[in-house]
Amino acid sequence: MRDIYERMNYCPLGSGALAGTTYPLDRDDTARALGFYGPTRNSMDGVSDRDYVIEFLAALSTIMMHLSRFSEELILWNSNEYQFIEMDDAYSTGSSIMPQKKNPDIAELVRGKTGRVYGALISILTTMKGIPLAYNKDMQEDKELTFDAIDTAKGCLALFNGMLSTIRFRKEQMRKSAALGFTNATDAADYLVNHGVPFRDAHGIVGKIVLYCLEHHCSIDEMPLDALQAVSPVFEEDIYEAIAMETCVNKRLTIGGPGKEVMEQVIAMEEQYLEESAFPCEDWEKALLA
Fold first, then answer.
1. Which of 4, 75, 119, 262 has its CA 20 to 30 A from that of 189?
2. Burial letters for 264-285: b for 16+ Cβ neighbours within 10 Å, e otherwise?
3. DSSP 134
């Protein structure tokens, strides 16, 4: 949104119907007085262009797309099959027919309202696709859908923030699911490779281990050492430390990885970015008052 603002913040005032005016207007002065960076540089473009609306709605659509995907994760995690999270009562309701059910209302509504914002973007694109230069009355259709998209996105962000801040994460259930989902299978293969086993062979060995676990309803780290060694004598007691969930996560230390140390660095960088990218609204208000 900040990136778009840098390109959008130019004032069309003084463009006239399409070719400016013969009156001695100071467009730079009026643009600055209204808080813009300056005037638009082409009067015809200033009245016939709605790229700023299209780009703005595209950004809102992208934001809503990410919120929708996030909502889908939360809806799945909230289901009885996953049980990774528990929604706060303030952001969920009971089912109208099933007394045991707790509906993730906000997540479902955000997911649904994404289509509403998409609709605004498609609507203005369709409106603009066959219009000749310069201003045409069709363009008045940009207002209602844009304002509605703004209100929808702002409301979804506000509610999403409240929902996230009150969610309770069931970490042990997540850990259990990660183990039974063989999240550490690759690390078991890496263990073998680090002990001289070619990766092709390590891949096959771990495949046999996973089959054993499926047959015995256990995770890799729950297998006894003699069972692991029956598949490959390379395994030693230190295999359990090598495939522990904490080890699997924290040894991935490249930028973008989930290791605690690198994640803390990335979070610090993102926090700095957010601080530096804040809109200077207060500065503009002071300048205008002065």
1. 262
2. eeeeeeeeeeeeeeeeeeeeee
3. S
- Closest by CA position to 41, among listed 10, 3, 9, 6: 10
- Report the relative pairing of strands 38-39 and 10-11 from DSSP bridges: parallel
Kindly state the tokens that stand for 276.
């530096």
Q: What pLDDT digit, counting tens, does each position of 182-235 carry? A: 999 999 999 999 999 999 999 999 999 999 999 999 999 999 999 999 999 999
The rounded distance, in Å, linking the Cα atoms of 153 and 26 is 36
What distance in Å separates the CA atoms of residue 162 and residue 159, rounded to the nearest whole number? Answer: 5
Residue 51 pLDDT greater than 80, yes or no: yes
Q: Which tokens in the block code for residue 84?
A: 């990774």
Q: To 5 degrees, how large is the angle CA 44–CA 150–CA 35?
A: 55
Q: Which of 19, 16, 11 is CA-nearest to residue 40? A: 11
Query: CB of 156 within 8 A of CB of 91?
Result: no
